[in-house]
Every structure is written in structure tokens, then in C-alpha cells.
Amino acid sequence: MAHLDENQVIEILNNWIDPELGVDLVSAKAVQAVRIEDDAVAVDISLGFVASEALANRLKQEVEAVLQPLAASVSVNVSWSVQPSNTNTNLPSLTGVKNVIAVASGKGGVGKSTTAVNLALALNHLGAKVGILDADIYGPSQPMMLGIPEGTHPDVVGENSFVPVAAHGLQSMSIGYLTTKNTPMVWRGPMASGALQQMLMQTLWKDVDYLIVDMPPGTGDIQLTLAQKAPVDGAVIVTTPQDIALLDARKGIEMFRKVNIPVIGVVENMAVHICKNCGQEETIFGEGGGEKVALQYDTTVLGQLPLSLAIRQMSDAGQPTVASDPDGPEAQLFLSTAQKLAVALWAKDIQSAGGFPSISISDD
């Protein structure tokens, strides 16, 4: 076998596009080291997002297969470490937070909060450190969904800093921790925006890889405050397939585009109902709507979730699906969606980052 050239390894990886990641590993700066000894090649790959064991193993096997013609022995090590997104903003980063993801909807009733909490739990289940901020000032629902007893308040450090409330492995903050469930927030827009800003800036987030922000429905003051005060790295739009929901989903996407927040993808909720008696699938709210919106705005469908009684019951009981039944079919859909979300958030920066990675190459 001809003498191995490290440049051959780099060239092959530079020209190979992983179908799931959608980028080559060299441009993604994922190739950390190439080691050559006789006819053996070893490659270290580090991904900048939380990666499931299945994804890491698949990538390892595929890269080894791609490099196999070069050497008698090929060994690939795949690891991950969540990196901050390359957000195009002059806003300072949130202390203790690497990535901020807004989960939003154009209208209420599409399951946005349920989706947000289960995506947060799914990212945590994959191995990331995750926080969730309930930004729905007028109708906070996360304390109930997380099973936090009424009357629970965050600890206060100093005069005005809050310690997040721990729940199911998440760090959480909500205006619901500062009021009672029967106390309406009769506030004008500036007061609600001020409350959101306080929760954003005065919460002591600790080493959070992903902060999920559960947005209120619509396109109002809270959305503008978040865009102006926090370095949001991307938004996820939750919709149902029905036409009226898709109309409002488009408005939500347009709003984020106007404030220069990239839309990472669309989650189509209540996409299908499966009869528990006969197993028949019914697209009660229509079908294909999420894909049409994603195609129109050059984004992707991150996941299609079912209309499920179990998901609703678990959320109402303070035991969201991913926390209570992580091996169940519904939880697996949330886990798959969360993995695609993490990949898409990471991949969006690759083309704009440019430059050639620093790779350690040795010929022992």
C-alpha cells in the first residue's frame, strides 16, 4: 500500500457530506486531529452540539468506511462539546448560557408550551445542560407542566438575582414562581416586557448549553423585547397542519426574520391521530402544511408530533412525556426532534463562519 498522506485524509473528509449533518466535517471544524502510523489512520472528531450515542456511532462507522480505502486500519473517535452559536448580534451573551432558542407560535392552542418543555427535556436526556424560561408573562404554564408545587419561589441571591428552580434535571424560571395561579397579570406591555427582561438578566443560569424560551403566542411586545435584549440564536415555530394555524405560523416566521433571528425549523404538532382501538391513522387537521411552510421559508421540518391523549395527560400531571416515559414512542419523537434541532442550530453557522480549522496532524 502506498505511503499515507495526511492531506488525502483531509481531502476526503472535506469532500464528504454527511447526510444527517448536511455539512462536511472539515468546514464544520469538527476534525480535531489526524494521526498516521505506518498503514493506520486515526481521526478525532468533535461535534459542537449534543449528540446521541446512536448518532455518534453512526458517524464513526460511516467515516471509517469512507477512509477505509486509504489504510489497512482506520480508527475514528467521535465526541461532542456544545459550542456557543455564532450569533450575528451586538447584544452581550447571557451569563451562564451558550445558546438561546425561542420556541414560538403564531397563535395559541397549537401545543407550543408542551413542545417547548419536552424539547428541553429531550436535549437534557441526550446529555446537554438545559434551562427553560417561561416567557409567557400573562399565561405561564411551565410551573404546572414541570410539576412544581404551588407556592414554590426561586431563592434570591443578593438583592435581585434569582436561582433557577430545578425540575426534572432542568433549570427553570417563570413569572409563575413569583405569583399564584389565580393571580392575573393585569399589566400593560412595558411592565410585562420589564418582567421578562428581569428574568432573562437576573437569573443565575449555570453552565447552560441550551436555554429554551417558551414564548407567548403572537407577535407582540414580549417577542420584540426578547429580540432586542437577548442574543437569540434561533427560533423554532410550532404549528398544526390546519390552514389557520399555518397562516399565523407564517406571520411568526416573518416577525423573526424582521428582527434578524434565524428560524431553525418548524415543528408540526398534532400531525396525526392514531386510534387507540384500531390503530388507524387520521390526519384530523390536514397534512403537509408544515412542509409547505418550511419549503416556502427555506427552513426544515424538525419533527411531526402526534395528537396524543397521553402527552396532554402527562403534561397536566407535571410529568411531561420525555420525563415520565423516555422510552415510549411519543418521547422518541421528541428526542428525534431535539436532535435535529441541535444539529440544525450548529450547522447554520458553518457556511458563515468560514476559515480553515486548526487540525493537529502527526506522522508517527
Can you describe what's shown?
This protein is α/β, with parallel strands linked by helices and 364 residues long. Strands 4, 5, 8, 9, 10, 11, 12, 13 and 14 form a nine-stranded mixed sheet that branches. The protein has a four-stranded mixed sheet with strand order 3-2-1-15, covered by helices on one side. Strands 6-7 form a two-stranded antiparallel ribbon. It has twelve helices and 15 strands. It has helices spanning 6-15, 53-67, 112-126, 142-145, 189-202, 221-229, 243-258, 289-296, 309-316, 321-324, 329-347, 350-353; strands at residues 31-37, 40-47, 73-80, 97-104, 130-134, 156-157, 161-162, 165-167, 170-174, 208-214, 234-239, 263-274, 281-282, 301-306, 360-363. Helices cover 35% and strands 23% of the residues. Helix 3 crosses helix 11 (329-347). It folds into two domains: 9-82 and 350-363, Alpha-Beta Plaits; 97-347, P-loop containing nucleotide triphosphate hydrolases (Rossmann fold), CATH 3.40.50.
Notable characteristics:
Rossmann fold, single chain, disordered C terminus, nine-stranded mixed β-sheet, Alpha-Beta Plaits
The number of helical runs is: 12
Q: Main β-sheet, in a few words?
A: 9 strands, mixed
Poorly predicted ranges (pLDDT <50, ≥5 residues)? 354-364
Structural class label: alpha/beta
CATH class of the largest domain: Alpha Beta
Bin the strand percentage: 15-25%
CATH architecture of the largest domain: 3-Layer(aba) Sandwich
Q: SSE string, helix = H, strand = E?
A: HEEHEEHEHEEEEHEHEHEEHEHHHHE
Average pLDDT across residues? 86
CATH homologous superfamily annotation of the largest domain? P-loop containing nucleotide triphosphate hydrolases
The number of distinct structural domains comes to 2
| Rg result | 22 Å
Q: Report the strand count.
A: 15
Q: What general outline do the C-alpha atoms trace?
A: globular
What CATH calls the topology of the largest domain is Rossmann fold
